[in-house]
Design goal:
Layout lengths: L1 E3 L2 E3 L3 H22 L6 H7 L4 H7 L3 H25 L4 H18 L1 H13 L3 H30 L8 H21 L5 H16 L2
Antiparallel strand pairs: 1-2
Helix pairs in contact: 1-2, 1-4, 1-6, 4-5, 4-7, 5-6, 5-8, 5-9, 7-8
């Protein structure tokens, strides 16, 4: 239920989710423009074209909004990557799809990636540690998914025997380095970069 001119109005779950997404997209624009630390809930509410009181029906604080942004981004990344690596296609196609999905998601949601890097590099305290813990879990989950994919391909004889966990960490670190360059140095185009990286990675993996 929400209040409008003193009256209670029923709100469906679909309406609530739509409003939450509206606030999240507004917050991403505001945080991207002013930086997370300098942004305020009032600015987010104005960007979302709603009153601050209405925004507080959905999120308790700026930290709560940021938490939702990070969790939504991580959930989408993990789900998309897991689906790609579980698909019944060739090993080459899996690796290419993994690289493409990672780069496309990060470049499409560049503002989120930039905000996350900024917050984690400048923040301290309980909230920052909580968010870092969540991001660490996402990376560990993706490392495990990629590691298991490599192990299956080794068993099938499609890939050279190797330390699958270290390989997973190396590939993710390579992609993160490219994303950092995209954000802070020079923009990349995901598709051409995917082609180059896929050839480079597969040269060292395929038997």
């Amino acid at each position: 239920m929400v209040l409008s001119a003193g009256k209670r109005i029923a709100v469906t779950e679909e309406d609530k989710e739509a409003q939450k997404q509206r606030i999240i997209r507004a917050a991403i624009r505001v945080f991207g423009r002013y930086g997370y630390h300098k942004s305020t809930v009032s600015q987010v509410a104005r960007q979302a074209d709603m009153g601050r009181g209405t925004l507080y029906w959905y999120y308790k604080s700026k930290e709560d909004i940021f938490r939702s942004i990070v969790q939504q981004f991580m959930s989408e990344a993990t789900e998309k990557i897991n689906r790609q690596l579980q698909t019944n296609i060739s090993f080459e196609s899996k690796i290419k799809g993994f690289i493409r999905d990672w780069l496309e998601l990060a470049t499409r949601e560049e503002d989120i990636a930039r905000i996350m890097y900024s917050v984690f590099s400048q923040s301290h305290g309980k909230f920052a540690q909580e968010m870092l813990k969540s991001v660490k879990k996402m990376y560990l989950d993706i490392i495990e998914i990629l590691k298991n994919c490599f192990a299956r391909e080794i068993l099938k004889g499609q890939m050279r025997p190797a330390d699958t966990r270290r390989l997973a960490r190396l590939l993710i670190g390579l992609l993160d380095g490219i994303i950092l360059q995209h954000i802070f140095v020079e923009k990349i185009s995901p598709e051409p970069m995917t082609e180059v990286l896929t050839k480079l990675v597969l040269q060292g993996l395929i038997r």
